[in-house]
Amino acid sequence: MNKRILALTLTAIFGAAVNAAPAPVADVSSGSTESRLATLERLFNTRTAQQHRVQEQLDLLQNEVNELRGSIEKHNYQLERILERQRELYLEIDKRIAAVMTPGGAQSAGELNQANQTNQTNQGAATSLNEDQAYDKAVNLILKDKLYDDAIPEFQSFLQNYPNSSYASNAHYWLGQLLFNKQDWTAAANQFDTLITQFPDSSKRADAMLKLGICEQERSNIARAEQLWKKVVAEYPNSSARKLAEIKLNAVK
Asked: Fewest CB atoms less than 10 Å from the CB: which of 47, 58, 124, 214?
C-alpha cells in the first residue's frame, strides 16, 4: 500500500513537472514558415521525450509494486501454512499427552529399540536438508506419520544444525512435549527451561512454564513446581495455561 501511494505521488509530481516545465526559449512568431515549423517540431519533440521519460519511470515503479505485492502474498500464504501446521500439532500433542498419562501408555523396550534403529538410519539423510525441510520433516513425523519416537532425534538434529532458526523456540517446545510424553521428566524439563530462558517472547512460554512445573512435580521438586505455576498465573493471567496452573496449585495444597 505504501508503494502504491508512492507511485501515485510520483505520478502527480512528474505530471506537474512536465506541465510546469517551461518550453525552450524560442521565437515562433518571426522568421520563415519553415523556420517556425522547425521550432514547433523541436518543442513538440522535447515535450514528447519528457513524457516518455516520466512514463518509463512510472512503469518501473509499477513493476516494483507488482513484485512487492506478489512477495507479500507469497509470505502471507507461507505464514498461514505455518500457523495451520502449528494448530494441528498442538492438537496432536495434546492427544499424546492424554494417552501417555493413562495406564499402558508407555512403550515396550522392543518398540524403543526399533525406533532407535530407524532414527540412526534417518540421521544420515537429515544433514542434506535445509532449514525449512529439516523442520518440516520433524513436524511431519508427528502429524502425518505418527512416528513420535522418530521425531525426537529429528528435532534434536534440527536444533543442533540451526540453533538460531526462527523455528528454534517451537522446536524446543515440541521436543520437550515428546520427551514429556515418554515421561522423561529431566530431558523434557531441559527443553522447557531452555525455551523459557532463551525465548521470552515465545507464544509457547506459558505452556512451557506449566509443563516444566509438572516435570518438577514428578521429580518431587514441589516447591519449584509451585513457584513456576504461580509465575504462570501472574505473568499470563489470560492464558489457558493459567487455568491449568491454578488447578495444579489447588491440588498440591
From this structure: 124
**Is the CB of residue 232 less than 8 Å from the CB of residue 239?**
yes
The Cα 231–Cα 249 span in angstroms is 11
Q: Which residues contact 216 (CB under 8 A, 6 or more apart)?
A: 189, 222, 224, 225, 228
* Grid cell of 135 as nine digits: 523442520
Q: For residue 94, what is the enclosing H or E element? A: helix 33-100
Distance, CA of 210 to CA of 206 (rounded, Å):
6
Q: Read off the amino acid at residue 169.
A: S
- pLDDT per position in the chain (253 positions), as tens? 444 544 444 455 445 444 444 544 455 555 677 777 777 778 878 888 788 777 777 777 776 776 666 667 666 656 666 655 665 666 566 656 555 555 444 444 444 444 445 444 444 444 567 888 899 999 898 888 889 999 999 999 999 999 999 999 999 999 999 999 999 999 999 999 999 999 999 999 999 999 999 999 999 999 999 999 999 999 999 998 999 999 999 988 7
3-state secondary structure of 102: coil
Q: How many CB atoms lie within 10 A of CB 207?
A: 23
- Matching residue, cell 510424553: 181
pTM: 0.54
Residue 244: CB atoms within 10 Å: 18
* 209 closest CA partner among 175, 179, 241: 241
CA angle 147, 241, 225 (to 5 degrees): 90
- CA 131-133-135 angle, to 5 degrees, is 70
